[in-house]
């Protein structure tokens, strides 16, 4: 799709325009060709979601249109009696059974339509829930490395925002289509029973009305599809400007004028696009109405000739008029459903492709239980490259972590420290080399059970929109270390004491009664979360980055006390905090270049000694 230029306003093509371009360029025959597969897919999905509702929906839809046809046949009988050459009282008496049949058919048609709608209304939220549940179930079960793949990340974002509506949208569109086509067939069948000649007449009436509806609907649909991507972009900007996450940065970087200008530019483009399309839409409607009127006029003329020649009686002709009108409405409904089914089918395919991709990326796990206590961890010659990276994050790395040891990983940013810690913690699997726990290869160990024995205190942790207590106990609930001890050890007791509702305070100011914490306060909550987990292995990745010097010292002292009878893997840039580590590994460009105790590394006068000296000099030099 070329860049759209409209009255000097240009919107460049982006990836999120892809489906809109496909929809706009597709014709009716493309949609009709795809329709059988879409009907099959949505009915299978509905059947899997609720068999009862699916049966009720389909049966009620079919029966409602059958009663439409029966109502037309009963109408013929009523009109025949009313037009008969007998006294009025006799005509009315003779027509009463037919009138009762017409009323009964109308009531039953309405009842079955409502029953079908009720079943559809029940199925739509169930389909959406099933789709969203499957989406989050698979997404939370993929390898963590998948989120480092831009293609997968984009797919998650697109599918989360639109594709979960695909099944419910598709159900609605397919049922509109099916209902329209069944209605058209039922009306045609009823006329065929009344007189064989009436069937080709109704089909003749449907041909020009179908053409007119396609032309009018196509223009309208192209307009909708043409502006859909811009509308989504506009909605994204509106969310950014009206929701909390971006509020501070919008003000800090004075982005308000830019965002408002971009919002207005897209808005003007959409309006002008719509206005430009109005003329085409009106012309299509005019020609459609004209052709439709001519077609109906020809059908009525043919019907009049049949009536004049005595081939049909007046009652049948009057019924045919009603049937022609009903056939036109059914045709419009069916065509509108086809259009909507095609668009919904694109979103549904997005969802299906994502489900298949996420299933293929599912996290692999062994079945062997991890050691009862943290045994020796050996990392032997591992290498790892992120999906979108050109260079490896780790290359031929080997380290050993013995039970009860405090092991430190140090190095500059990007040296591979955090990646190595995540591999040891079972979040990533190396592409080469092995990681063993007590001699058992990590690939053979149940990774979920393994993570139960690991606690992580990270610099980049999640600020859960939960209470303070839940932020600490999440994932462990009431099965961790004593909460009072954890609060004291982490310094989070001072944070909780200042909260209006203590541990029950919601840590999100966007909720009633919620509050926000400073970076240092959040860091204490994160430390408490890790200590509460009370796991044999504690991984600390820059755990004090947001803390002042006094708090940092207190936290490290708490970690040292916590390390008794536990294993600690420490990552930090502040080398004064790793002097007491049993072993220090120095990483550079994804490789281990030095290892040893603090004293041994200082004697070596290598990279570690240089970094430590530079940091200590910053505290001792004046000026």
TrEMBL record:
It comes from Nonomuraea typhae. The chain crosses the membrane at residues 55-74, 94-112, 170-191, 197-214, 282-299. Pfam families: ABC_tran. Coiled coil: none annotated. GO terms for molecular function: ATP binding. Residues 55-343 form the ABC transmembrane type-1 domain. Its main location: membrane. This is ABC transporter ATP-binding protein. Residues 377-614 form the ABC transporter domain. The keyword ATP-binding applies.
